[in-house]
Design brief:
alpha/beta, 8-stranded mixed β-sheet, 8 strands
Length: about 350
């Protein structure tokens, strides 16, 4: 055989083997991704009527063969959040399913094609919306109306107790909830500046700008007045957002928390929270709820405000790869198991029911 032909055949075989290996690796990785994103629950789209329009939701139920389940109703934090939080809720829903609980969540108004605009909502509006979803769930034959509770993060801290004041709930899972809008905003501002290593002059300028914003809110200034006072440095503040902040900046959950007395509450607090002063949150929750004996506070040292591991959230690449290949590993150690165990303990009669 001619040496050149022999070399070509060897080269062809090497290319074929390389391609075959690459395809096998790709197929293996695809299999890992599919397996990691297969959750032990059934999901279905649902529609909930409220206030003349429809809430577009997802109901995730356990695959345990039972005809009726308890339910965890999700209350989003700030921002344009869809029903699954870009699939970020699914590991939490799976933890609920393992404890025998279904999960219900819906797109915020104006998100993922839903009607309305979430920036038009007050915290009371959001509480009314959640109460309507609970009423819808109680009418379903597959939901145990006596075992319906709430899960909420961050901004939901102003919504959760308002819901409990409107309709009975069996439990609450509060994830780094805010208590006072203005205190939370100042804490967030300073925490982020210190994390960035800001100079003293930059910190002073930011505080002065924040104080100006607060004075404008207190005198019910228009967006145009705000824009003029900021000399065009709007820092992402839109007219819709200004209206939303103007409507809600006086929010304070302290008094509303009375509605949770006697209700089992799991308070999850992050160790690396730049958004919410978790020490202040824990202090207020203990002052209001400890006497009733229903509060369980748990701290997660490596958690960020989003309850991702701090070691992962610091790198966008780590977040993307972990979300793709091991989404459950995104969350702080013990967070998913802690939520599941809390729900299982309720099932064993470990918490008071209002």
């Amino acid at each position: 055989m001619h040496p050149k032909i022999q070399l070509r055949r060897r080269g062809l075989r090497a290319t074929v083997w390389t391609l075959a290996t690459a395809l096998a690796v790709a197929a293996g990785l695809a299999g890992v991704v599919l397996w990691q994103h297969s959750y032990a629950m059934d999901e279905r789209r649902v529609s909930i009527r409220h206030g003349g329009h429809t809430l577009n939701g997802v109901l995730a139920t356990p695959k345990d063969g039972r005809k009726r389940h308890g339910l965890v109703v999700y209350v989003h934090g700030d921002g344009p959040v869809d029903a699954t939080h870009d699939d970020g809720y699914k590991p939490l829903w799976e933890a609920n399913a393992k404890a025998g609980y279904a999960s219900l969540s819906w797109d915020k108004p104006g998100v993922a094609g839903a009607p309305g605009n979430w920036l038009d909502q007050s915290m009371d509006d959001r509480a009314d919306e959640t109460a309507a979803a609970i009423a819808w769930a109680r009418a379903r034959p597959d939901i145990d109306g006596g075992r319906i509770g709430l899960w909420g993060a961050s901004q939901a801290g102003w919504v959760l107790p308002k819901v409990a004041a409107k309709t009975p709930v069996s439990f609450v899972i509060a994830v780094s909830p805010a208590v006072n809008w203005l205190r939370q905003g100042r804490y967030n501002l300073l925490a982020e500046l210190h994390a960035d290593g800001a100079s003293a002059s930059r910190i002073s300028a930011a505080i002065a700008k924040s104080d100006t914003t607060r004075r404008l809110l207190e005198r019910h200034a228009t967006y145009e007045e705000y824009a003029k006072a900021m000399n065009g440095d709007l820092d992402g503040m839109t007219a819709d957002r200004w209206r939303f902040v103007s409507e809600n900046y006086t929010a304070d959950a302290t008094r509303d928390l009375d509605a949770l007395r006697g209700v089992p509450v799991l308070l999850a607090l992050a160790g690396h929270d730049l958004n919410v002063d978790t020490a202040d949150t824990e202090r207020v929750y203990r002052e209001v709820l400890d006497a009733g004996g229903g509060l369980t506070a748990k701290r997660y040292p490596d958690a960020t405000h989003s309850f991702l591991k701090h070691s992962i959230e610091r790198s966008d690449l780590k977040v993307a790869l972990t979300a793709l290949f091991s989404p459950r590993s995104l969350f702080a150690d013990g967070f998913l198991d802690g939520q599941r165990q809390f729900l299982e303990e309720l099932g064993r009669g470990g918490g008071a029911t209002p």
